[in-house]
Structures are given as structure tokens and as C-alpha cells.
Amino acid sequence: ARPAAAAMVKETIRVYARVKPLGRRQQAGSYSIDNEEPLPSLEITVPRDLADGFINNKRESYKFKFQKIFDQETKQDVIFDSIAKPVAECVLAGYNGTIFAYGQTGSGKTFTITGGAERYSDRGIIPRTLSYVFDQLQKDSSKVYTTHVSYLEIYNECGYDLLDPRHEASRMEDLPKVTIMEDSDQNIHLKNLSLQQATNEEEALNLLFLGDTNRMIAETPMNQASSRSHCIFTIHISSKEPGSATIRRSKLHLVDLAGSERVAKTGIGGHLLTEAKYINLSLHYLEQVIIALAEKNRSHIPYRNSMMTSVLRDSLGGNCMTTMIAMLAMDKRNIDESISTCRFAQRVALIKNEAVLNEEIDPRLMIVQLKKEIQDLKDELALVTGKQRTSELSQEELLQLDELIETFLKDNDPDSSLDVGADMRKIKYSFVHMKVFFSNGDDSKKLLSQDISEEKNSNEELEKLKGLLQQRDNEINILVTMLKKEKKKAQDALSQLNATSAGSTVSEQSPSMSLEESQSPSRCFSLKEAKVFSSSVPRLSFLSRATGGKMSLGCQEAFEVFKRDHADSLTIEDNKQLLKQRFDEAKCLGEKLNDVRNKINHLKGKIIQRQIQRAALAVSNPSEELTFDPIEENLRMQIEEEKKSYKTVYSRFKGLKVEIEHLQLLMEKVKMKLQKDFEIWWSEEAKKFQHEKPEMVTSPNTVTVCPQFIRSSQHLSPISFSDTSRDSLNEDPAVKKNSVTFGSPTLKTRTPPSSTASIPLTGDSQADADILAFIKARQNILQKKG
Ligand code: ADP
Ligand code: MG
């Protein structure tokens, strides 16, 4: 028999659509959303003339059904509540879950899954889900939970572990490679993918940030990883009820898929991949798997064609609550792609899932269960072989039996049965019990066990009473000593009270007073508290390395200019302002908490005072009984009130803490990006300059980066060399060149980074010329120095 019951949920994959807000210069395409029952639909209209440009019979309007359609103005919290929360709930209940975002590059996949880099309110499904999950886990004390996270990037059929803690990856190849292993049961295992334990929201967010940073750093304009790779953030939860042998394990995959745009449109490098319609072959395989899953009676599903489909194998058709978000950009130029995204979504919506609870048995507890089973079997065997047991039934066993028999006799159901187990003694006892029951009649239902062990009982009773008496004696002694002490204390206190002003001296350690709640103000909140936030966020080592290191003056100046004009610096400024505001708020709340805490302490003091006074009174006047004291009761009520307000303020304080940490992470990320943009730009500029001065080129095959640049960029770059202390190497640029990442010859052919819009050079021409002149002059100076 399988001890763990397998629960199953069967439903089709839920497919949602989200329309990205239109850009300022984008022309709106024509579409309409109809919230009809039971499923809303999205209608896209393609103008005839445009349609005619393609195949003749191209339809004019297309209609697609979705679980729900979120139009442009939909905010991230709504997306989380309607799409992710139900999946997170399933995962908390022990099922697997997957949410994947599908759509062309720029349609908002990363924005939806991870979030925007600017505002706290823009945080996406991952941070919100983490927050929700940890909140729920904290609330549930009935189980023991363990949580881990992993973050996998798949690029070009290779898996990379984004949670590599070494922070040294400057290229994707530097990250640990993850490979797929299949066991004999055809289960997929990911070798080399680290599962990092996260015990709370903060730890999990730090891991997410680490992964996102690695993801960003590993990307070069050459590999365009963000549009061509899949990223899978997974939350692993295992739970166990105390004492139970079953462990539930569940996984929640949050998947940011590669861009779904077709090669024909992007026309990379002019040559098309003939074998696939997609820039991403693995997306093509994903579609094949989806088609196969949607078809009835298909026995073979081509999961093995790609790493992506292998990894998501049990998350697509199988054991999983799967949800897809079709990301749509509805401007005219992207409407074609959006239509094909919708088409894909319609196929996905046909797939049926069977989510099964993932339960396993804990071996230790299994042993306990087996032992019990062995005992039962032994009992049965004894019964069958007629072996008599001589030991007497214990008092407890007898009482249990009595109860069983009573319930059996009272039960009016003719089918009810009495099961006392395979123990002849118990069976015999039951018969005797029945006999007594019937001979005594209904009124005198005397329990047999009481008769049998009457003598034994009375002896026990006597012992018990003796013990109790001793206990009471002790208590009385203790109370008398206490009273004496109290009397002395009271006298002392009274004399002191007379000497000083009332309320100023209050004993802190009162044994009778305690704020029981875990949230009781155990610490003093001060300005320091707010500052602790910043230091509590572990800084990634390369950040300090990147900013703390020395760079050449020229490079530094250029960086200042670059920073000033970079679009992200606005974000940084905004966030700084916001952070300051939040810090102030936190400070305010911290002060409030202190106030409340002081108030509570003050009230506590008053109660103690009151008690001392009354104790003193009772001692000096023993006839007066200690009765209910309305004043003390009132004080207690006041404390309760204060505690309530403390709790509200505290929870706001905590929320603010999470927000501040998130903002800090966002800022770090933007700073990193700025730095990276600058390095790319700087190396491009350096190269341009070199092209203008061919005599500087040392050899036609080597990199055309001037030595000054290499020296300065070493310190600036978050990329670490294998051994920076080897000065002899540093001094020889010819040797160094080969190990500098942006010095790689391939750089020459690469297209400008997508973020060039934010680089001064693509702004107005006057500014561009200024910057170039500035760089040139700087280079000249540096070269002269060199
Ligand atoms: P993808 O990951 O699909 O390539 P992104 O998530 O990077 O696309 O989105 C492209 C740009 O559009 C980003 O700058 C992002 O901030 C912005 N964006 C996407 N969706 C939204 C949205 N719903 N609201 C505001 N900005 C969005
Ligand atoms: Mg993206």
C-alpha cells in the first residue's frame, strides 16, 4: 500500500495576454479587447493594403481567446495577483508550477518576470512571488519548510549557473556550465546547477540580484544573450509536518524565454538560418513539443531535442500547474509578431496538465511506521498460533478499551464494528465487559476496568495525594519567603518614593511582567537602525572593486561626463531621492517605535509600582484580601493598546525595510549597468581613435587598444584578471591584450550596444563632437605621458 495519498489536479494550461504600453513614437496598431464570457478575446485587425503586401489570402482580422487579457495600463501588482499568486498557492500546497513569458524581444518579458530597474512598484513576478511565499511560510507553523533557489540561463544549448557566487564572470563561458543528466527512470537532473538555500525574503532577493547581475555582466553585444537565451529562476520548497513521514517537494519555475521573433524579420548578418524559422532553435523545439502535447494520442513528445525542453519536461505537459503569458507589442511594426505570439498561445492553451502532489517518505519515519506494522503482525501471529500472553493489560490500555467498547455500544449503526486488534486478552476483556454491561442494565454502566484495578488504584491514589501534599507544602514555603522579600522591597521602594519624584525609578526586572509576543519591543530602535539597512545588504565584492579601484584621471573624467549624460543617472538620482525619503520615513517609524516602547515600559513600571504597594498593604494588613484591582487592569489594557499600535508600526517598518533593500539593489544594478555601458563605449572610442592613427597599431592582428586604456580599464572593470598582482604582466600591454575581454578582436565587428541611445554620442551632433574632441585631447595627453 502506498502510504502517501496522491492528489491530482487536471486542467489545461492557463494562457494570459499582456499588452505592452505603446512607446512615444510608436504608431498604434488596431486591436480590441472583448471581455466576453467565458473567455475574453483579443481581436487584431491588419489593414488590407498591408495584408495584400503578403500572401493573397491573408486574413484581415484575427481573434484569439485568453484566460484574461491585460491591456497597456495594467500594473505589476495586478499581474502578480491574477497570474502568479494562484500558481504560488499551488506550489505552497505541494504541486509544481511554471510561469513562462513568451514574446518577441522588447515585448516586456523581463519586465513582467523580473521587473523594471527603476521603480520599486515595477518589481516583477519573481520578487513579488518570493515576498508572498516567505510571508505564507512564516504564517504556517504547522509544517517545517526549507526553501532553495536556483537560476539557470540557457544560451546556445548550453546551461549556465547564474548563482555563481564568485562574481568573476565577464563572459558567459566563465560561469559554471550546467549539463543535463537523465537517470534510469528518465528523470532529468541538472548537474552543476547550484541550489542556494534562502531562509528569508532578503536572502532570496540577494540571490536574485546576484543572478541578474551575472546575467547582465555575461552579456555582450555580440551574444545578445538577453534576447537569445532563456532564464529560469526556480524556487524549491520542501515541507514536512512534524512527526509525519512524508516530505512534500515542489518547484516553481519562473521562465523568461528567448525572444520569439523570426529571423526573416531581423535578418541578422544578412544570412538566414534555413533550417529554422526562429532565431532561437530551442524555441522552435519548444513549439514542436507544444504541438505534440496538444495533439491527442501522441505517444512520443520530442523533449530531448533541446536543453530547454528537457529542463521544462515535467513542467509543460506533465506534472505541473503551468501558466503562460503571451507578451504583445501592439504597435504597427510589431503586429505581425504579436499575431504569431497569439497563435502559439492558442496551441499552448490546448495542452492538458496533470499536476500531482510530490510526496516522498522520510526513511527515519518510515522505520517507525514499519516497526508498528511489525508489532501488529506479531500480534496477529500470536493470535493465529494461539500463543497466550501472560502480561496484564496496562491501566491505559484498559481505559482505551473501555472507551472503544462504550462507543461501539452507543453506536446505533447496525454495521458498526468493534475492532480491538488481534490480542486475545483484549478480546476476552471485551466479552467480559459486555457481560457486565448487560447484567447491570443501562443505568449502572460501571466500568469494568475500575473494578479490576480498584485496589491498585487506591494505592496509586494515596501516593499521588502524598505527592500533592508535599508540593503544596513547598509552595507555601516559597510564598512566605517571597512575601517577606516583597515586604522589604516595598518598604525600600516607599522610602525611595518619598525621597524622589514618583515614577522616576522603576525596577526593570519584574518577574511577573513580561511582554509575551515575539514582536515585543526587545530592541531599542534608533537612527542606527536605519543605517543598519544599508550595511545589512551584502555588497558584492566586485562592486567595490569596480568603484573603489583607481582609474586614470582621463578615464575618470570621461566617466564623470558619461555618467552625467547617461539616461540612467536620472534613475539613480530619482532612486536616491526616493531612498532618502524612505530612510526618513524609516527613521520616523523607528522613533515612533521607540516612543511606544517607552510608553509600554512606563506602564509596566506603573503596574509594578502598584503591585508593590498592594503587596505591602497586604503584608501590613493581612486581613485584607488581594482582590481584583481595576487600576492595574486599566494599566494592562493600556499596554495592550500600545502593543497593538506597536505591531502596526512595526509591520510598516518591516515593509519599508524590504522596500529600502530592494531600492538599494536596484541602484546597484543601474550603477553596474552604467559602468558596463561606459566601458563598452570607452573601448569603442579608444578603437575609433586608433583607426584614425594607424601608426599606433603595433601589429595588424592584435587589438587596437592603446595601452593607457588597458591600464586604466583594468581598475575600472568588474572583470578580474586571474592574478592582478602580477605587475610584470601589467606592464607589458602586448601580453595583457589577449586576456582583456573587450580587447578581443571580435569586438571590431560588433554592433553598438543597444543602450547607445543613452550614450552622448548618439545625442545631438554638437555634443558628440565635443565629447570626441575631449576624448582625443585626453588620449593625446595620456600618450605623451606614456
Ligand atoms: P523583453 O524582455 O521581452 O525583451 P523587456 O522586458 O526588456 O522586453 O521590455 C522592453 C522595454 O519595455 C524595457 O525598457 C521595459 O522597461 C519596457 N516595458 C516593457 N513592458 C512594460 C510595461 N508593462 N510597462 C512599462 N514599461 C514596460
Ligand atoms: Mg528580456
From TrEMBL:
Signal peptide residue numbers: none
Polar residues biased stretches: 738-762
MF (Gene Ontology): ATP binding; microtubule binding; microtubule motor activity
Binding of ATP, residues: 103-110
Record keywords: ATP-binding, Cytoplasm, Cytoskeleton, Microtubule, Motor protein, Nucleotide-binding
InterPro entries recorded: KIF6/9_C (IPR056524), Kinesin-like_fam (IPR027640), Kinesin_motor_CS (IPR019821), Kinesin_motor_dom (IPR001752), Kinesin_motor_dom_sf (IPR036961), P-loop_NTPase (IPR027417)
Domain Kinesin motor: 12-351
Gene Ontology CC, one term: microtubule
GO annotation terms (biological process): microtubule-based movement
Compartment list: Cytoplasm, Cytoskeleton
Disordered: region residues: 494-520, 721-762
Coiled-coil annotated spans: none
Name under which the protein is recorded: Kinesin-like protein
Underlying gene: Kif6
